Amino acid sequence: MSIESPTPRGLILAAGLGTRLRPLTDTIPKCLLPIAGQPLLDLWIDTVARAGIRNLLINTHAHAQQVRSYIQAVNQRGGICLTEAHEPHLLGSAGTLRANDSFADHAKEVVIIYADNLSSVSLTDMLAFHRSHTDSVTILLFHADDPSGCGIVEMDKDDRIVSFVEKPVTPRSDLANAGVYIIDSPAYRQIAQMNAHDIGSDILPQWVGKMRGWEMEGIHLDIGTHAAYETAQVLGHDLLLERGYDDQGRRPAVFFDRDGTLIKSVHYLSRPDQVRILPGAATAVSRLRQAGYVCVVVTNQSAVGRGMISEKELSKIHQVMCDQFAQEEAVFDGIYHCPVVPSGSDRTIIENIHRKPGPGMLQQAAKELRLDLSRSWMVGDMISDTLAGENAHCQGSILVSTGKDRASEEEPLAARFHQVPDVLTAAQLVLGN
What we know:
It is built from 14 helices and 19 strands. By secondary structure, the chain is an alpha/beta fold. It has 2 domains: 9-242, Spore Coat Polysaccharide Biosynthesis Protein SpsA, Chain A (Alpha-Beta Complex); 253-432, 3-Layer(aba) Sandwich (Rossmann fold). The chain has a 7-stranded mixed β-sheet with strand order 5-4-1-6-11-8-12. It has a 6-stranded parallel β-sheet with strand order 16-15-14-17-18-19, with helices on both faces. Strands 2-3 form a two-stranded antiparallel sheet. The longest helix has 17 residues, at 226-242. The protein is elongated, with a radius of gyration of 23 Å.
């Protein structure tokens, strides 16, 4: 019997040809088209991660290698876990579920997203609504300017969908299917066994009376045409500003030390079963993400350089840590580590640019994740952590007291930085600034 996790999983439908956007889509997949300078898929992954969803399945077909390279780059950073479901021949949205019928086996819910929309939807709020009722399916709805081109619903006073018509000649409402669904795992498996092609045309009409609708406010736009794509550039710019991006496409980050800051400090932690999240750490990460901060772990790992653990074993430890955080709806954008063994014990001296107090890991993350270090923060339990933030020219550094005690000679330096009891208090300090 499989063990069900309370953490949802995400399925992003991104395989389409985007024929109406040619010639743009002759050389780039629709899901990677830039919206105000950012790949559309970036925005969806950020939306999903804000809701605490770490494990995502992405189907591919058109320009599959480009999407595959994107997936590999995200996975290499460590925090978010993407899996490719390649379709040599397009299967249709319901066909993708059929081909991946076991994807829901270890999750309570699956969030399904059509990647060719630009949307400001809060999946956190939508998940809260889904969990407040007893039906197994929730559909995201928006008010359509042209209802005849959409799947149109009618709802009763309890938000239960009592009518669904795909592209009606005479629409009876303007509430349209937005292409985002939350489906309980048993219903996902039932739909996967229906041998259908399209969710909108073949599945949803059969579930009338057994699903609810959730109306969203804000931006929601199908970017299927050139005119819509031009509109998306304007709306996307506003959405990016709301999410903390600047005009150069950079976001602020909070960098976290690992041991003694996010998880219990264990001398040369070497096994996944030793990982224990510190109280409040997941809440801190979740709140910072929802406020627009990228969340990155930067950790010195001389145990690798000493041969005490391998890179593969370290990866397993981080997998367990990320899974524990995801169970509390917190997701990291990346994990960076330095295996260099120090030659001395002075935590204030830079022996290697990447080993804290060196700024190298923060600078590497800033380059790969397009971060604005001047608006970013470093949080850690050791003076080397806060000095790394200072050396990277971050906005500020914060010392927490949940890890190792500082040496007496470090106290004068420590006085330069904010000092708080734990990482949740550190997050509150960052958000207050």
